[in-house]
């Protein structure tokens, strides 16, 4: 599957937001996808306002405050950003 086959009008983000532990994106076709916030270390340290200061792009979402973004494709395929480490689970 090529990139052009993956990114379609139906997969365009129409809404995005962050909760304490996840990034959520609603797509043009009505689906909502989510990924753990820890997958994106460049977002660590941002407060709730900054986490939700998101720009929608055709293929993904962008945080101008950190000059970083993620693609819908990477969320679907489970691609984590470089340096992503799962949090330690409490014993």
UniProtKB/TrEMBL annotation:
It comes from the Bacteria. InterPro entries: DUF2442 (IPR018841). This is Uncharacterized protein DUF2442. It comes from Neorhizobium alkalisoli.
